[in-house]
Structure formats: C-alpha cells, structure tokens
Design a protein that fits this description.
Blueprint lengths: L2 E6 L10 E6 L2 E7 L4 H21 L3 H14 L17 H17 L4 H10 L1
Parallel strand pairs: 1-3
Antiparallel strand pairs: 2-3
Helix pairs in contact: 1-3
Length: 124
C-alpha cells in the first residue's frame, strides 16, 4: 500500500471540496487544495486521513462517500458553507465528526487560529 498526499490548486479537485480521499486499488490518494500555509494544508490532510481510515475500518465505501458529497454539492444553497460530512444523514457522519475533533486538536498544537483557518477553507 502507498499513501500519497498531493497539494493541488483548488480548481483541480474532483468536485467542490478542499480535501478529498480516494482509493486507487490498494493505494490511497489524498488531495488537498493549496491554501498557502503548510499548516492549513496538513490539517486538511490529517482530517482526510483520519476519516478514510475509520471509513475503511467500518466498511464505508468511497463510492458511498463520493455519491453523498457530490449530491450534497449539487443541491447546496448559495449561502451554505457547511461540510457534507456535517449533515446527520451523511454515511460517514460519525467518521467526519471524529476527524474534525482530531483536526482541531492538531490545529491547537500548530498554533492555528481555528476561526482564521475555517474562513480560509470556506473562502476557496
């Protein structure tokens, strides 16, 4: 198994997201939209890694996550900046919530102001 984290321009994401994970056979690819601060980029990567590992452990497929996320984005209201994984009916709701918790813990240790970070993420 290989695990790769790629920092890419936001407009190169598969769909409207800041962080994405996908299985390519047995290999894992995590793509993160570049926010100009390595700490911000790695916080998103850390979130994605936690989320995907728990999804894999619990049998939640990439297809189920992708389908939910892409449908969520299709019907998203213009002023809605919530994340698909925060929707209670997301098939990976619990996994996303845990990933956000550890992301917040790491942000604190990296001296990242969560409000500024969140504004940057939502501003893409």
């Amino acid at each position: 198994m290989k695990v790769a984290i790629n920092i890419i321009p936001h407009d190169k994401q598969r769909y409207e997201t800041v962080g994405d994970w996908q299985w390519l056979g047995d290999d894992l690819l995590i793509t993160v939209s570049d926010m100009g601060d390595w700490r911000y980029n790695m916080l998103v990567a850390f979130h994605e890694m936690a989320e995907v590992l728990i999804c894999k452990h619990r049998g939640i497929s990439q297809q189920a996550v992708d389908e939910f996320d892409m449908q969520f984005e299709k019907v998203r209201e213009e002023d809605d900046d919530s994340e698909p994984g925060d929707c209670i009916i997301a098939p990976y709701y619990q996994e996303h919530q845990f990933a956000t918790c550890v992301e917040r813990l790491l942000a604190r240790e990296l001296d990242v102001d969560w409000k500024e970070y969140d504004e940057t993420v939502n501003g893409l």
